[in-house]
Amino acid sequence: MNATRTSKFLGVLAGSVFVALLAAGCSLGTTDSADSTTTLPTVTTSASASSETADAAEPSSTTAAIQSAAERYGTETATTLAPILTNADTITTAGLGPVRIGQLIEEAQSEAGVELVAASTGNETCRYYTPAAGASGASFMVVNGEVVRVDISSGPITTKSGYGIGSTKDAIKEAFGSKIQESAEGDQLTYVPVSDGDKNMRVIWELDAEGMVTSLRTGRVPHVTPKIGCSGG
Fold first, then answer.
1. Of the candidates 229, 193, 19, 11, which has an alpha carbon nearest to the alpha carbon of residue 94?
2. Residue whose C-alpha is closest to residue 217's, from 145, 143, 130, 141
3. Hey, which of 17, 38, 115, 116 would disulfide with 132, CB 3.0 to 4.6 Å?
4. Rg of the chain taking only CA atoms, in angstroms
5. For residue range 59-96, what is the model confidence (pLDDT) as tens digits?
6. CA torsion 46→52→58→64, rounded to 10°?
7. What is the span of the domain harbouring residue 8?
């Protein structure tokens, strides 16, 4: 009897141990599976975070480079604004964009938003100034400190109506009709305003042998009339 009870007791005990081990085994597998599931997003998130951190570091690196350049070239250069006067401005009887006939050179420079550099030739009575940037091919004839003429010798700048270097004589004459005077030699077209306020102003196109515009200018009579400015003082 005792042997039988002992045997049963041992059997129950063995069964309990087996169940306990089996339960422990399922719990380990689930835990591993759960850890694996949570670990993958964690690793991915961590990698993503690292990537984001690296990406976030890129602008900082770029910013640092810009700051270094600013320091290298000086604060004034780094903070200089773009010129107000650009190739998008057009010629009228009033001038070129914000620069107007009749302005003092200091006022013209302020309006242009860019340095107007004096030519090495000429004198205080008559001298040309060119923009340091912005409007390519443009120059301003200044007489006794006052802007009296604007010349366009190259580049894309045209009149307000769109006639500039490369335009044809026929197109200009057709556009302006009786307001255009053609030189006897056929190498120059002059726009003559009809309004009293502009009666002393002119827009002039110089032409080549084929009747194509090679340069243009606007300004006040008599300064605008000669092909070469400052030639007569």
1. 193
2. 141
3. 115
4. 41
5. 333 333 433 333 433 444 333 589 999 999 999 999 99
6. -80
7. 2-78
